[in-house]
Amino acid sequence: MQRNSVKVSMAVVRRLPKYHRYLGELIEKDILRISSKELGKIMGLTASQIRQDLNCFGGFGQQGYGYNVVELYKEIGHILGLDKEYKCVIIGAGNLGQAITNYEGFRREGFKLMAMFDINPRLIGNTIRDIKISDISELEEYVVDNDIVIGIICVPKENSQEIADTLVKANVRAIWNFSPSDVKVPEDVVIENVAINESLYTLTYLINEDNLDI
Amino acid sequence: MQRNSVKVSMAVVRRLPKYHRYLGELIEKDILRISSKELGKIMGLTASQIRQDLNCFGGFGQQGYGYNVVELYKEIGHILGLDKEYKCVIIGAGNLGQAITNYEGFRREGFKLMAMFDINPRLIGNTIRDIKISDISELEEYVVDNDIVIGIICVPKENSQEIADTLVKANVRAIWNFSPSDVKVPEDVVIENVAINESLYTLTYLINEDNLDI
DNA sequence: TAGATTGTTAATCGATTAACAATC
DNA sequence: TAGATTGTTAATCGATTAACAATC
């Protein structure tokens, strides 16, 4: 548990990957020390918020100095669980499934893609970056036998709930769902429904905001 | 402007696409009338919040009855600007660019993909769903000549800011950026930095939450 | 009319910002 | 030591929830 066993709010949790990413960029630029003020300027947050956020997990800084970038990067990576390995499967080997296979940030950081599944006979048996595409009918058994932790759903929304149910039955710990329809899972399974079109619709809202007239 | 010219908070705006999506699902199920209470149950929100959210834009409901699903769906679609057409280009014709080309929610709703661009000579000249892939050197001129409104960035993070700068120079109104590095744009350009790996890292955080010990 | 459910105001809750003593 | 910057408490701000009169 975190300091004092206080649950960290989702608002903070959702900022952690962003801290991790910006700190990674600082390391690439050989910037090894940073104050909350400077980091805030880069990330578009207040210094106060950064200090509040980080202090949910511990006092990583040093008065008069700021934060050690490499150390903080590692700490946040640890908090996010990025120093562990996660066996994954992707369901749906179309463009999106393949895009994720190649996506940095997925290929790094201990995500171990074990297999892909599809219903399309033309894809089954093929290999993408050494990962075999199997028939979806083999999904449940494979997940059980190989202790798969994360199931990644890249199928159309019509089939996503069914796939999710199969994954839950086969005891995955978490589901990363890219179909544009929220899947429901029991409380003990972690779910992230991504719905990438939502950010596009936010974009069009903002394009038109100034001349909106209801 | 909205009712009383009060700016709607981003918290509300980011829920609008979700309302739109759930209402679309209700229509598919021939449910033509819904109360804030029922909708809240389906979406995991309180009835109160739904009524507050919708009343930022107008009184779409009717006392004693609830909301007309089709009407509300159309209203929210209008608020989101989904009843207009947006000329788009995709930069980066790899898996991710192709995945977006095929993604529902992008293909529908008035997003008109005009062209794709890449640096890979093996892709240039090819066609995806009747969309030609051109050399990235032609991007700026094309965007200017064709009044492109939205640029969609699907290139690695090393090149994303440069592409964004080109798009801004060529007067796009908005950028939808999938590279896992935030691009900066002037205030008058709308930006959505998606960073899909952030939701994955949130997932791993939640997997480990209970046994986190700093 | 009676029941249901909205629109809207008020109350509460939580998240962000400000301030400052502690300390490197 | 003096200057810088943290960790943390208090103040503020904004978002969510509750309550209820209005009304279909």
UniProtKB/TrEMBL annotation, chains A, B:
Chief subcellular location: cytoplasm
Assembly with partners or alone: Homodimer.
PANTHER family assigned: REDOX-SENSING TRANSCRIPTIONAL REPRESSOR REX (PTHR35786), REDOX-SENSING TRANSCRIPTIONAL REPRESSOR REX 1 (PTHR35786:SF1)
Membrane-spanning segments: none
Highest taxon, organism lineage: Bacteria
MF-aspect GO terms: DNA binding; DNA-binding transcription factor activity
GO biological process: negative regulation of DNA-templated transcription; response to redox state
Stored SMART domains: CoA_binding
One Pfam family per UniProt: Put_DNA-bind_N
Name the record gives this protein: Redox-sensing transcriptional repressor Rex
Family matches, as Gene3D superfamilies: NAD(P)-binding Rossmann-like Domain, Winged helix-like DNA-binding domain superfamily/Winged helix DNA-binding domain
